[in-house]
């Protein structure tokens, strides 16, 4: 992989984030962490550095998501009751939402895009929970409700396609790899 020169400011944010999300899509979480930490360490204090300091938390959540961290096989319980992954996504979303109000427009825009992505991830976990509930009940499954939720998520992704290009591509690759594995 070609290493790009890091300037330590938000001017190269898209390039850094493209590298970051590409590594996530390849399930190379350590490389993604190195990229963001190197950029953060060379950045001056301010909104961009605060934004970069949130990305390792996103890595932890994404790794847990890919590893089905919200699933527990202990004691034959499929889904964890506390659903700490959803809590992680929500906390990260709240932290990034604060950055949306920052004076740096690039940071605010990217924080907003990632907040939207995190909301979609939480909705996917809700769908998994619903599918498990339907599958474990003795009643016939009503798939229309789940289908409506899935279509809603797809619509949200399509509507924000240009805004979430980087993230969406990574998300789709991770989803495909997770289901193939």
From TrEMBL:
SUPFAM superfamilies given in the database record: FLJ32549 domain-like (SSF158548)
Protein's GO biological process: cellular response to amino acid starvation; cellular response to glucose starvation; negative regulation of TORC1 signaling; protein localization to lysosome
Pfam hit, one: C12orf66_like
Highest rank taxon of the organism: Eukaryota
Secretion signal span: none
Protein name: Uncharacterized protein
Organism of this sequence: Clastoptera arizonana
């Amino acid at each position: 992989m070609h290493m790009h020169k890091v300037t330590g400011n938000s001017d190269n944010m898209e390039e850094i984030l493209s590298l970051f999300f590409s590594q996530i899509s390849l399930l190379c979480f350590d490389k993604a962490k190195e990229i963001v930490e190197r950029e953060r360490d060379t950045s001056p204090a301010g909104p961009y550095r605060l934004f970069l300091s949130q990305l390792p938390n996103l890595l932890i959540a994404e790794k847990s998501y890919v590893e089905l961290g919200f699933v527990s096989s202990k004691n034959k319980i499929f889904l964890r009751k506390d659903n700490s992954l959803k809590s992680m996504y929500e906390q990260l979303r709240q932290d990034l939402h604060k950055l949306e109000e920052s004076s740096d427009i690039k940071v605010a825009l990217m924080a907003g895009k990632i907040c939207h992505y995190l909301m979609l991830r939480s909705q996917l976990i809700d769908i998994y929970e619903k599918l498990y509930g339907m599958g474990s009940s003795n009643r016939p499954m009503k798939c229309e409700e789940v289908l409506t939720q899935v279509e809603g998520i797809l619509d949200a992704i399509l509507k924000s396609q240009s805004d979430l290009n980087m993230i969406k591509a990574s998300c789709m690759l991770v989803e495909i790899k997770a289901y193939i594995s």
